[in-house]
Specification:
- There is one protein chain.
- With 216 residues, the protein is of the alpha/beta class.
- It has two domains: 62 residues, 3-Layer(aba) Sandwich (Rossmann fold); 119 residues, Dihydrodipicolinate Reductase, domain 2 (2-Layer Sandwich), CATH 3.30.360.
- Helices cover 33% and strands 27% of the residues.
- It is built from eight helices and ten strands.
- A five-stranded mixed sheet has the order 5-6-4-7-8, covered by helices on one side. A three-stranded parallel sheet has the order 1-2-3, sandwiched between helices.
- Helix 6 packs antiparallel against helix 7.
- The chain is globular.
Length: 216
């Protein structure tokens, strides 16, 4: 660990992570080792990091994962105590939200030439966060809330006619059926994410600092 980072950790009570880089999991793990609470915006980087959650429990630290730009996470958490049959997350974004995506470039997909609604991806959560790390953190949040990523199917669709980033959830299980749709305004500072995702992070931090949690 670099001395500057170690010094930083010694001066804070909570770390807010929003770097979404290959070092994300390492940064979070070092913070927890230093017994610091962590709020992580790059949830996709934690999908295969169960050791981090175990370490947090051992060190009595909180790992805070905001709901992000999707509605229904509280209901999925409750439903996971019973049986969930399937979860389908359909994300729709304008082409500008996928600019310079290496996966799309490798497939020869020219976003500028898309003129109608086009399915860019359909597959597992692991594949979604691998190929769209800056666009689909919400998929990892859904999977972690469900405690079973094998039940989750991700669809990513684009069209020049889309004006907002939308996330549509359908959850089936013994509890019944959940359907939610969130039409999100694009974040003014980052077209690859939604404004609601930013507000969700701020609200999560606010609730934690106030010792108040509303909802499941």
């Amino acid at each position: 660990m670099k001395p500057s980072f170690k010094k930083f950790l010694s001066s804070v009570d909570i770390v807010v992570e929003a770097v979404n880089s290959p070092d994300t999991a390492w940064i979070i793990k070092q913070a927890i080792k230093a017994r610091k609470h962590v709020l992580s915006m790059s949830v996709g980087k934690l999908l295969k990091s169960s050791d981090i959650f175990r370490l947090a429990t051992k060190n009595r630290c909180c790992v805070l994962l905001p709901s992000g730009a999707v509605a229904g996470i509280d209901a999925i958490k409750a439903a996971s105590l019973g049986n969930i049959s399937s979860i389908t997350l359909t994300t729709r974004k304008p082409p500008g939200g996928f600019g310079h995506n290496p996966h799309l470039i490798s497939r020869g997909i020219n976003l500028a030439k898309i003129t109608e609604e086009t399915v860019l991806f359909q597959g597992t959560v692991d594949e979604a966060v691998k190929y769209f790390p800056q666009n689909i953190n919400v998929a990892a949040t859904v999977a972690l809330a469900a405690h079973d990523k094998s039940k989750v199917i991700i669809r990513i669709i684009t069209s020049p006619n889309f004006k907002v980033n939308s996330h549509e959830l359908e959850v089936l299980g013994d509890f019944g059926r959940i359907v939610t749709r969130t039409d999100n305004v694009v974040c003014p500072d980052n077209p690859k994410t939604s404004y609601l995702a930013v507000l969700s992070g701020i609200q999560t931090l606010k609730q934690f600092s106030q010792g108040l949690k509303i909802g499941t």
